[in-house]
Amino acid sequence: MKDKLLKKLDVFKSAIDMEKKVYAIYTDAKAKNKSSVTRKLLEALAKDEQFHINTIENFLNDIGEKMPHKGGLSNAENVSKPTSIDKSSLFASLKNDLASSRSDIDIYKSAIEVEKNSYSFYAEALKSQVEEDEAKLLKFLLGEEQKHMSILQDTFEYLNNPDDWFRGEEK
User: Fold this and answer.
1) How many helices (H) and strands (E) are present in the chain, helices listed first?
2) Radius of gyration of the chain (CA)
3) What does DSSP assign to residue 44?
4) What is the DSSP string of 127-165?
5) Is the dihedral of CA 135, 136, 138, 143 positive or negative?
6) Exposure pattern of 80-99 as b/e (b: 16+ CB <10 Å)?
7) What element of type H or E holds 85?
8) Which residues contact 145 (CB under 8 A, 6 or more apart)?
9) For the chain, is the Cβ count within 10 Å smaller at the N or the C terminus?
């Protein structure tokens, strides 16, 4: 029982460390970026990463307070919710700021890789977690990373070739 608890704590502490690193990457990139659209997206992603950190910390606090754990995502209600990134307004803004945003392609490539790594981490962790509350949290985090990858990939594709992107969206 003790080994299982320690393993669980290690997974979620590693998740917090990872989320903090991703948060730092997004906030640093935002500070160095000239495109207002890219800065706004990076800020929204950083806020989401902070939400993930808070959610995981609340989960770990619950584990410490009561055994067996019965909380999970319900205790995340005390922290701000993840940002909703409106894809249509993002792309409308990108259209107006295309010249400066195109120089950000490397940022988007890097961000996609960061999100893929996060997704892989949570997918692997989900394989080893058997308790319902842990699985619920990990599935939530997987969904968040998937949303991030999707918006970043769409933005990357749009910046690489806006005409093809619009043709693909019209289908």
Assistant:
1) 7, 0
2) 18
3) H
4) HH--SHHHHHHHHHHHHHHHHHHHHHHHHHHHHH-HHHH
5) positive
6) eebeebeeeebbebbeebee
7) none
8) 115, 118, 119, 122
9) C
